[in-house]
Design brief:
- It comes from marine metagenome.
- The longest helix has 22 residues, at 104-125.
- It is built from 6 helices and 2 strands, in the order ααααββαα.
- It has helices at residues 6-10, 14-22, 35-40, 42-52, 77-94, 104-125; strands at residues 64-66, 72-74.
- It is mainly alpha-helical and 135 residues long.
- Helix 2 (14-22) runs parallel beside helix 6.
- The protein is globular.
- Strands 1-2 form a two-stranded antiparallel ribbon.
């Protein structure tokens, strides 16, 4: 299970990446989101993003319609492209059915490796994600 190169692991050291961003931008100018929320709470994330950018409230529900199988689809225009791109990216991100189940020792190695880095990030941003939770 130690077939990871550090370059693969380095991508997940978000606290380190955030420290680099904070050299150039004040914390108040950065909006930190959990990608998983794009999948489960897209409307809330969009509302939070609009609010962060001081954009007018956008009535997302009034711009979309539900089809017969209860999937939400944008009516058209730019909204269609935005939703299509987010939808395809989140589908790709969360489509784990093509992968074998992770070995428990590999999961433990990754959790142990990332835990202190994740805790540092959570401290920096003042909120927690469920990344350190046992699965």
């Amino acid at each position: 299970y130690h077939q990871f190169s550090f370059s693969h692991l380095r991508h997940g050291l978000y606290a380190q990446h955030l420290e680099n961003w904070l050299k150039f931008f004040p914390k108040e100018q950065l909006l930190i989101l959990n990608a998983k929320d794009l999948y489960y709470n897209l409307d809330n994330i969009l509302a939070e993003t609009f609010d962060f950018l001081n954009l007018p409230k956008y009535q997302i529900e009034s711009r979309i319609e539900k089809n017969k199988i209860d999937k939400v689809r944008p009516i058209g225009g730019h909204e269609r492209n935005i939703y299509k791109n987010i939808d395809s990216k989140t589908r790709t991100l969360f489509n784990v059915q093509n992968y074998p189940e992770m070995k428990s020792e590999t999961r433990k190695f990754l959790q142990d490796f990332f835990r202190p880095h994740n805790e540092k990030l959570f401290e920096m941003i003042g909120r927690r994600f469920d990344w350190n939770d046992e699965k």
